[in-house]
Design brief:
- Helices cover 66% and strands 0% of the residues.
- It starts with a helix and ends in a 7-residue tail after the last helix.
- The chain has 4 helices and no strands.
- The chain is globular.
- It has one domain.
- The model has no long low-confidence stretch (mean pLDDT 83).
- By secondary structure, it is mostly helical.
Length: 111
């Protein structure tokens, strides 16, 4: 498996865990996720799958495109604001890898 494939899998896993953490704390669903959070997760997965920068995809915070609709972007920001700090405690390796991916990202310069 390529490093890029691993990074995309990590990104998918990271956003899934963050949304689950947020939903459990704020919505206390009977199922795995409430309807609103399930829709947000599905949307985030679609955005990752359809990213035009697949080969050189940065973390969303470093992305020049910002492909989320305004409402979904605000929801994801709330989720990340809540879950981000908690990821360090509950999923330190995944959080560390995400921070490392963000810090090490170097955009490809087209010559």
């Amino acid at each position: 498996m390529s490093d890029q494939s691993k990074q995309l899998l990590r990104e998918r896993r990271t956003i899934k865990i963050m949304i689950e953490m947020y939903c459990r704390s704020h919505h206390q669903p009977q199922e795995a996720l409430c309807t609103e959070c399930r829709a947000l997760l599905d949307y985030a997965m679609q955005r990752i799958d359809k990213c035009p920068l697949q080969a050189d995809k940065p973390t969303c915070a470093k992305c020049p495109i910002h492909c989320y609709k305004a409402l979904m972007k605000e929801q994801v920001k709330k989720v990340m604001k809540y879950s981000g700090p908690r990821m360090l405690r509950h999923h330190p390796v995944l959080a560390g890898r995400h921070l490392l991916d963000q810090a090490l990202f170097k955009p490809n310069k087209k010559t």
